[in-house]
Amino acid sequence: MIIKEITIRKMKMTMKNPFTTSFGTLQERDFLLLEVMDEDGNTGWGESVAFRSPWYSEETLETNLHMLKDFLIPLVIGKEIGHPDEVSSLFASIRKNNMAKSTVEGAIWDLYAKRNKMTLAHALGGQAEKIEVGISIGIHENTAELVETVRGFVEEGYKRIKVKIKPGYDVEVIRELRKNFPDVPLMADANSAYTLEDVQLLKQLDEFNLTMIEQPLASDDIIDHAALQKQIETPICLDESIHSLEDTRKAIELGSTKIINIKIGRVGGLTEAKKIHDYCMTHGIPVWCGGMLESGIGRAHNIALTTLPNFILPGDTAGSSRYWEEDVITPEVVVEDGYITVPSAYGIGYEPNLEAMDKFTVEELNYKE
Ligand code: OSB
Ligand code: MG
Q1: How do residues 234-273 score in pLDDT, each as one tens digit?
Q2: What is the distance between the alpha carbons of residues 313 and 333, in angstroms, rounded to a whole number?
Q3: Which of 2, 81, 90, 253 sits at a 20 to 30 Å CA gap from 209?
Q4: Is ipTM beyond 0.85?
Q5: 164 included as an active-site residue
Q6: Residue 246: its pLDDT value, please?
């Protein structure tokens, strides 16, 4: 396939509910969608999961736009590409900027699958026909309200509940949740809010039988996480610290992590995500698919990835209605009794809903060969 044309849409959508982490609250979701077109007029879609500000990682919507316009698009436009695995070699001269790279690579994967009349899941080697879904719940300062929110999602059938924690909002909140939901698979995500000085506090979480604690320590750390894991029972799962297969190998060798949260954008695309999946499978490390409050385009990629066999734990791939009044794909992503049925249409398996997309598009940028 030859990449003839690329269109970027700057998007602005408002989430139904604000989402609070240890870093702050988000309700406006600004992001990029990217469409690639080949010589036959087939198209593929990708999403940049970077946020407006660099709280989760150093990338932002504007740094992604800069990388795409000035470096990444010029490296693929007009190029003949046999397989999406080649995209990472085309980008080899560019360091990091994984979310920006993943935006283009994801669109090329979708295009490749459509050209070959396959689902993206099959193109990746995934087999599952339905996937288990968990949900990530933001910080609620009022614990009674949190309990009711969790109850609603448990009743909807979500297979695992993840709550955000931060210093001052941790042990007692988890205790209350465990008291109310003794058997629900429960986990906590700290988004790097603690340090090794908090070992005694983190140890107290051991009594609640959490499936895991996600990224308790610094976002660039694997050394202290290894030290922490030696002192706590709860399995550590790394999110922010893992950007590549190499990071994965090192973290596993050091004993910094027992589970990996794979986010396609964070690791630079589906090809790297699949490598991490395969490596973890060989090493007995279960993985699950994280979320970045994506629109339906990004979620569709997450769903396809989750069909690979080592995605043993439920992911943060909640349905469209968890986030949006109206999503940008059709049909929307539906979670039924805690499962998503993997779509059978070619490529990402959902059609862009152009009418909805236009409503949320702030600007469109077009690049031709
Ligand atoms: O740390 O997993 C995270 C959302 C934004 C940034 C980081 C994270 C999250 C979530 C929500 O936990 C995942 C989702 O529902 O998409
Ligand atoms: Mg996380």
Answers
A1: 999 999 999 999 999 999 999 999 999 999 999 999 999 9
A2: 19
A3: 253
A4: yes
A5: yes
A6: 98
Amino acid 260: pLDDT: 98
Which residue out of 21, 99, 313 has the highest number of ligand 1 atoms within 8 Å of its CB and is therefore the one to mutate? 21
Amino acid at position 239, single letter: D
Which bound ligand lies closest to the C-alpha atom of 55? 1
**Bridge partner list, 311:** 287
Q: What is the pLDDT of residues 296-318, one digit of tens each?
A: 999 999 999 999 999 999 999 99
User: Does the beta carbon of 290 sit less than 6 angstroms from any atom of ligand 1?
Assistant: yes
Kindly report whether the global pTM for this prediction surpasses the value 0.90.
Answer: yes
C-alpha distances in Å from residue 210, one per residue of 44, 233, 237, 322:
39, 9, 11, 23
Q: Domain ranges in the chain?
A: 5-117+352-368, 122-348
Residues forming beta bridges with residue 51, ordered by sequence position: 60
Residue of 114, 164, 166, 274 marked active site: 164
Nearest atom within ligand 1 for CA of residue 162: 12
Fold of 5-117+352-368: Enolase-like; domain 1 (3.30.390)
Q: Is 241 in the pocket of ligand 1 (CB under 6 A)?
A: no
